[in-house]
Amino acid sequence: MTTASKITLARVALIPVYMLLMYLSGGQSGPMMWIALVVFIFASATDFVDGYIARHYNQVSDFGKFLDPLADKLLVLSCMAIFVEWGMMPAWALMIVLTREFAVSGLRMVASGTGTVIAAGWSGKVKTASTMVGLCVMMAFPTAKIMGTVVTWIIVLTTLYSGAEYFANNWSCLNLKK
Could you tell me which residues come within 8 angstroms of residue 62 by beta carbon, excluding any fewer than 6 positions away? Predict the structure, then answer.
């Protein structure tokens, strides 16, 4: 197993730690929320670190290609699910993110069946980064409802845009004429 894949696995292992800390915080600003925020930031940063190591040290692997985006989705969705449970984010926003993730994953599976690899696009990277930063802001200021609403809309809009871009750029992979 490569170093990059080990870092990605560490990110996955941090998710239950993060969730436990969030639940212990009770959604209130305080030591547990701040520790949860630090864990979330650290886990988010490993996304950039493992990608750098994989590319820089030629450690790109099929396992890493599978696990890295899955780890990102699990980390972000675990945070969003907690925010929905606490009433800090509407469930429809989480459903938009889930729908986009399933749709893009499905598109990638169909494309891979034809030998086409759909690489992560610029808008997908912007979506991931803005989502992670936005969720950090919501953890730092859990009682700022207006800020939570702004973050939610940024997440929704970048999610919709990046999903639309993936489909617009790769529509031919669906081969709808058959």
Answer: none
Q: Measured between alpha carbons, how far is residue 68 from residues 11, 92, 106 in Å?
A: 9, 25, 17
CA distance 158 to 153: 8
pLDDT in tens, 111-133: 888 777 777 788 988 999 999 99
| Sign of the four-CA dihedral 96, 99, 103, 105 | positive
pTM: 0.90
Angstrom distance (rounded) from CA 38 to CA 5: 22
Select from 115, 116, 131 the least CA-distant residue to 163: 131
Q: Which of 31-35, 154-158, 167-171 has the lowest mean pLDDT?
A: 167-171
9: Cα separation from own chain's centroid: 15
Tokens of 136: 């950090």
- The Cα 148–Cα 138 span in angstroms is 6
Positive or negative torsion for Cα 102, 74, 163, 83: positive
